[in-house]
Amino acid sequence: MRGRGPGMLGVLSVLAVVVMLTAGASQAFSEGARLDPSEGGDEEPSAREAGNTTEIEQGESRRPASTKEPTTVTSPPPADADSLVPGEELHKEGRVPMGSPYIFHVGASQIPTPYVVSVDVVAFPGSRDADSAGGVISFLRASSRAYVRERPSADATIFGVIPEDVSFAVIGAPFEGEGCRGGMWHQVELGGYTCLRGSRSATQRPKTFPSMRKNKFSPLFFVRARRTRDGEEEPVFPRYHSRWRMERDEVEDYLAGYGTYGFVRLKRGVFTDIEGRTVRNQDFRRFSPSNFEGVVPAQVTAAGVPDGQTLAWTFEPETFVYRDNGRWARKLRELRKHASILVPAGPPEVVAGRSWLRLEDGWIRADEVRRWERVSPPEGMTASQKWIDVDLDEQILTMYEGADPVFVTLVTTGRGGESRTPVGTYEIGRKKGIGDMKSRQGVRRPYFVGDVPWIQFFHEGFALHSTYWHNKFGKKGSHGCVNMSLKDAARLFAWTTPEVPAGWNWRFLRESERGRGTTIVLRSATRQREASEDEAQRAGPVAPVSPAGLVDPGPTP
Fold it and tell me: Per-residue pLDDT for 379 more than 80?
């Protein structure tokens, strides 16, 4: 027994250590060390979205978008791996992004897990000073949606929304304040404050929201409910709170058969959405979103767009190059849809009532392509200021920095009538990473388009946003919004101002920021001409002027 005693004690000691380590690991996991689902492979996106609960009127011609109205722009990706918050390079140049109270300098190698890092904090007017902030950034995940306010008060204006269970940055230590019962106020980016009644340390750095899936051009799996035959009642499809509930057939609610939806995961025949709810794959069919992408004019050739030529795109399923521009011209070759080509910049040649453009190896009909026109910046625009031009006649959007075009692409705007896209000069005032669009109640043909990425509102409910349900870019067809491909919408969302901090889903322009959102100009020569003609008709007939400049009284009664 003496010889076996120490052995038994040793075994018990080892077991005790194992139990302690297991308990510690379990506690760490329960406190929030859960891995981001984006680490699960190519089937999941690299960012998660907030649940859409609040509905707003969104402007795809009276489309309400769910969740609070957003504003502004999501920040561009960091210039290098050592940047925590985009804008560090601007700070180095002495230019600070409008509305940004802090610029953070953090080396990626310095960040432990969970993230709590000491950093150099540069304070700007209107923010808490660096001493009160403590010079420390920590990354959290909130247990419910967090609203960002201008002051630590429940009465302060909301200018941002952070989704539930998404990593975001807080500055300094939490503190008590007005209107945050059962929780604590935290300072966040852009001089904002949020009341958190439950949170845990994040195990990953904040990411732009939403982000593309690895090696994909879409942030989500997009699906449409399987349709029924004409005359049959519109179907509904069960949705479950979790896979566990699905296996027990405990239905949470139903999805309308006329809707389209987005999911973050597809595994073993089950789609999972951003809130962990599940549906059966067999009830839906996958979309294949358009892979269309615009061009950078400076990269069209080694010298950019040649003098005397301009960019053009085909937009119909069939577009042909002809040997000549005669009535019975022979077809030489077919161009694929959305092919980008170079055509003469001047007016087309008219032969037998049809307009033609000359290519290097033949001719193409002018009405079968969309041609880009370079325009001057609006009055008062600085040499480096960003602005957007939308040619409603040609269905072309151009991103400018001053007078320099940096990106050109095809879009789809309002189909006309009550669904016309407004003309004029506006400012991007609300931005949202992902939102829903749906018809008003009681309409004859309802629609619901869920999980639309990269929405930017510029006038009332009208917005620039991505489109995963069609590939008609270059042709009119929306309810009034400016539709873009997923790739183009993501690029534009990251380029426009003001910035949206990583992890935020909504961003609104504050009153103090008015005039700092990216300017957008929507123009239509056709609409302008029609308006002039209508005005002339309302004014009545105009007395003709004789060559001598005298008014001709017209025939005598």
Answer: yes
d(CA 377, CA 355): 29
Provide mean pLDDT across the span 311-332.
Answer: 93
3-state SS class at 78: coil
Which residue's entry shows tokens 């769910």? 66
pTM summary value: 0.73
Nearest Cα residue to 64 out of 46, 52, 49: 52
Exposure string over 16-39, b if 16+ CB within 10 A, otherwise e: eeeeeeeeeeeeeeeebeeebbbe
Q: What integer best gives the mean pLDDT of the chain?
A: 76
Task: Tell me the pLDDT tens digit for each residue of 116-125.
Answer: 333 333 333 3
Contact 504, 73 (CB under 8 A): no
Q: Does pLDDT of 320 surpass 90?
A: yes
Least Cα distance to 52 among 192, 236, 259 occurs for: 259
Residue with more model confidence, 92 or 310: 310
Q: Which residues pair with 522 in a beta bridge?
A: 390, 424
C-alpha closest to that of 535 among 543, 523, 546, 527: 527
CB-based contact 113:203 (threshold 8 Å) = yes
Tens of pLDDT along 233-280?
Answer: 567 899 999 999 999 999 999 998 888 999 989 999 999 988 889 999
DSSP state of 412: B
Sign of the alpha-carbon dihedral angle for 242, 246, 252, 255? positive
- In sign, the C-alpha dihedral spanning 105, 109, 112, 113 is positive
pLDDT at position 229 is 58
- The span from the CA of 130 to the CA of 105, in Å, is 13
- DSSP symbols for 421-450: PPPEEEE--EEEEEEEEEPPTT-SS--EEE
Work out the angle at residue 247's Cα, subtended by the Cα atoms of residues 244 and 252, and round it to the nearest 5 degrees: 70
Neighbouring C-beta atoms of residue 186, cutoff 10 Å: 26
Give the up-direction half-sphere exposure of residue 525: CA atoms within 13 A in the CB hemisphere.
6
Cα R_g (the chain), whole angstroms: 29
d(CA 64, CA 61): 9
Q: Closest Cα partner for 354 from 334, 329, 327, 320?
A: 327
